[in-house]
Structures are given as structure tokens and as C-alpha cells.
Amino acid sequence: MSEGFKEELAKELGFYDVVQKEGWGGIKARDAGNMVKRAVEIAQQNLLEQK
């Protein structure tokens, strides 16, 4: 994932403030999992739209 995409996901999921203060290592495992889950959802949606 690009840095910009990760930042957008963090903003959407509501923990970008933690990333700004503590870096990516400061986020909770649950937030990281939710970020990956959302990235997969977006990728699947993009694939469906391309068909």
C-alpha cells in the first residue's frame, strides 16, 4: 500500500491522529486489521467496477 492510501484509510477509520503522533507503530492491532480489511474491500470493489 502506498503511504497516501494508508493515510486516507486511517482518516476514514478514525485513527489518523494516532498515526500523526506516534507513527504507524502506535496504532492498535485491531485498527491495523480494520485497515487491511477496508483495503481489501476497496480492491474488490474496484475489480467489480472494471468488469
TrEMBL record:
One Pfam family this sequence matches: SASP
UniProt KW keywords: DNA-binding
Top-rank lineage group of the source organism: Bacteria
Species the sequence originates in: Bacillus benzoevorans
Molecular function per GO: double-stranded DNA binding
GO BP terms in the entry: DNA topological change
InterPro entries documented for this protein: SASP_alpha/beta-type, SASP_alpha/beta-type_CS, SASP_sf_alpha/beta
Family membership: Belongs to the alpha/beta-type SASP family.
The protein's name in its UniProt record: Small acid-soluble spore protein F (Minor alpha/beta-type SASP)
